[in-house]
Amino acid sequence: MDLDQKLSILADAAKYDASCASSGATKRDSLGGTGVGSTGGAGICHSYAPDGRCISLLKILLTNRCLYDCHYCINRRSSNVRRAAFTAEEAVRLTLDFYKRNYIEGLFLSSGIIRSADHTMEQVVNVARTLREVHDFRGYIHLKTIPEASPELIEQAARYADRISINLELPTQQGLDRLAPEKNLGRTKQAMGRIRVKLDDAADRKRGGDRKLRHATGQSTQVIVGADPSTDADFLARSDELYRAYRLRRVYYSAFSPIPEPSSILPPAAPPLMREHRLYQADWLMRYYGFSTSEILTPENPNLDLHLDPKLAWALRNRHEFPLDLQTASRDQMLRIPGLGVKNVDRLLGIRRLTLLRLADLARLRISLPKVRPFIIVADHHPAREGLDTDRLLARLAPKPVQLDLFGHALR
Amino acid sequence: MHCVDPGESFTTWRAAARGLVARDVPPAEVIWEAPVTSLFESAPVLAPPVGRGGAPAVPPAFVELAQTVACHADTRRWALLYRLLWRIVKGGERRLMEIASDADVAMARMLAKNVRREIHKMHAFVRFRKIGEAEDGRERFVAWFEPDHYIVEAGAPFFRKRFANMDWSIFTPKGCAHWIAEEFQLTPGVMRNPCDDPDVMEGIWRTYYRSIFNPARLKLKAMQSEMPKRYWKNLPEADLIEELSRQSSGRSQAMIETPLREVKRAPVNAYLDHLRERSAPVEVPEDPADVADLSLTDVNRMVHACRHCPLWEHATGAVTGDGPDNARIMIVGEQPGDREDLEGRPFTGPAGKLLDQALAEAGLDRSGIYVTNAVKHFKWTPRGKLRLHQKPAAGEIEACKPWLLAELSRVAPEIVILLGGTAAGSLLGSGVKVTRHRGVVAAPHVASRVILTVHPSYLLRVDELRKESEYRQFVADLKLAAGGS
Ligand code: SF4
What would the pLDDT profile of B169-203 be if each residue is shown by its tens digit? Predict the structure, then answer.
């Protein structure tokens, strides 16, 4: 099989992994070295696929042969797909050749599980080691690890990679038992715990002056939405726990997608992509806007409204908090106004010290007036409290059904 | 009216603007354009700047913004920048840059944003083609890019840093950048792509592009908002977009109609067997008496599967005892903390470090001691972005007690050191208070010698004044186990 054929199989096999971000690495470049590469913090999307997702990394599997039988996965042993495997040398060459042409920011390497967790991890780590040590590659590397891999191998992965991740896949053990019988929530959490300890220690050493230390700066995970009956509350509660306990940089929500070799125990239909989008929005509110999961969802309503963004939904449930005077409201209060993002809140805080805020100021900051108007007071706008109490508000603010065009990537 | 030639760059504009400010020429009296020779004999000679260092002092935020705005292709940018400068240095609006909603500031910020976006797109969409190698093996690459703004100079340092060890040129109609034999050079723009032979890797890159696309999620609008059509003609993969989009509904329909595949039996494989063994459900007896004749290993396996109280659910895993199972001394703490929960071992966090230090000072070797906790799962409550340690409730201590008793009976230590109220409550009952009964306590059902002292996390919390004396007292308590008095 030639390289082109292998690539078509092993990139196809990797495309269901949502994460492709190349952000958050320590700054470095190739000056003074012998190879290529730099990382700058923000990450660059070098292309976009027609599915709207960005292409930032060469995302491939080392092999799509797999012992496991996760039913949502095209590479599971029950699947009838063509199998292929890259040699380490091939994966290294492809990364370097693409990188030098400025097609990519680096490599995202995952693998089906062949023989054992450790055997597989060794192969994956070997590619990263070759890139770093033989070719002095200073671009981005993201390695997928396996919870059962030995701590020594995970430690090595962290040494060569910028980001490491372990996919949680489903938020509950019951879900895993049914759809991914070889996976285990407790073991995944334990592996994430060990990784966090390693990342913390490395960060301490760096702060302590060990500037030369090259080490991953974060871990992330992915969950599949809509493959089992888990509610949005299940997903958000699990994410909240993971962010807190393991300091994940990011939880990726990937709407379960039809695959060419569907399994007989999967749901017949894919979930609406909007659900994935709403989860990203809710996740964002938890991480950057100070919302707790219980404010976003309740036991009676454990799923996000597909028609209303979660911040607006919260504001409509809590109308008594509004309208807020932008001249005097606290930052935390302002962050809860629908239509105001973190950046604009901080800008407004700066501006209001120097001048009185008016609607025109908001317009020039490109804040959507129809969206914020009912919730705010500024010098030339005092909405009647009654306006907030009418159901017309909901009718006015609930968007007409629009084509979804935002993905997690766009939210980054 | 003053007609002033702003030149092509921030530097030339700045020189002109400084002169105008020095001569008190208000913005309304300046036309920023290159003089047409038939109307003007020559460009106006501007008076040299006056004052300290010659230049009016402006906030760094303005200079930074102006440098970026200067790269924009809009000819009105020079007038806008001069207006801003004037308002800041002559109009008394020293803090103008902080008012992002001011019409001029908002306009300048928008232009700057366009420029930054274009620089970002240059970093993203420049596609190098390999055209050969130098004699020393240095590879040579060229690229063609068509930016909307004058961004080549601002965008080039990125490529120097990233591709320091290759030779490359980026040709654009608005300036070219070259890095050849470690020399950097900027040259004027060229109107056509000087190299239109494709690179062999382009075919493989297109294969990648085709394969990484998920036809079940076609989203052309989202794609175009990030990769506008004007860039497509220089991206080798872009002409696949049409074909892939056209096929996508057929491909996803075909997937949906594919007959479902039955589950395949697991192959015989030692690794899978081992996984199954690890995941096998463990029966945890309700009655502690039922664990009476199990080994410590078996007990610990059950602890990991224990659901006797709700604490297991939000912890990483159980933290069982650590140390030789025939240890002469056993230490019982309260419950694992954040770090212990992550590592799965007792006393590895800050309190554990302090304990280690105190043990060493008391002449005790931790490696010979069996260390465990009264409660095996970490109890926490959310606070900010953290997990905040919470004291276990009486019911939780009670629920976990059988495991502690099992450990106690297997290790059968001669000496037990109880750290803090939770450990004391578990083994001695709630009537025993550390403050009152500190030191050696009589509890023959626990061990022949039982020592009660504070938990080291108390020493971390106690105020500075008492820290030292409390610590000395703690070490003294531990010494009671060292055989001394
Ligand atoms: S282990 Fe499961 S998730 Fe991983 S590749 Fe194999 S089948 Fe897919």
Answer: 999 999 999 999 999 999 999 999 998 899 999 99
Q: Residue B297: pLDDT above 70?
A: yes
What does residue B27 show for φ and ψ, rounded to 5 degrees? -55, -35
Any residues with CB less than 8 A from the CB of A36 and at least 6 apart, and which? A30, A96, A99, A100, A137, A138, A139, B162, B163, B164, B165, B166
Ligand 1 lined by A243 (C-beta under 6 Å):
no
Provide ipTM, 2 decimals: 0.92
- pTM given for the model: 0.91
Determine if ligand 1 sits within 6 Å of the CB of residue A227: no
Euclidean distance between CA atoms A305 and B309, whole angstroms: 34
The closest residue, in CA terms, to atom 7 on ligand 1 is A76
The DSSP bridge partners found for residue A164 are: A143, A219
Residues spanned by CATH 3.40.470.10 within chain B?
270-482
3-state DSSP call for residue B332?
A: strand
Q: What is the pLDDT of residue B483?
A: 65
CATH T-level fold of B270-482: Uracil-DNA Glycosylase, subunit E (3.40.470)
State whether the Cα torsion A71-A74-A78-A84 is positive or negative. negative
Q: Which atom of ligand 1 is nearest to the CA of A66?
A: 6
pLDDT at B279 over 90: no
Distance, first Cα to last Cα, chain A: 38
CB–CB contact B225 A405 (8 Å): yes
Of B64, B80, B59, B101, whose CA–CA distance to B17 is shortest? B80
Smallest CA-to-CA distance from A375 within A312, A331, A328, A332 is with A312
**B146 burial class (0-12, 13-18, 19+ CB within 10 angstroms)?**
middle
Q: Residue B107: how many CB atoms within 10 A of its CB?
A: 18
Q: How far apart are CA B59 and CA B87, in angstroms?
A: 12
The two three-digit tokens of residue B161, written as one number:
């840093």
Q: CB of A70 closer than 6 A to ligand 1?
A: yes
Which of A10, A45, A46, A148 should we substitute to test contact with B (largest number of B Cβ atoms within 10 Å)? A46
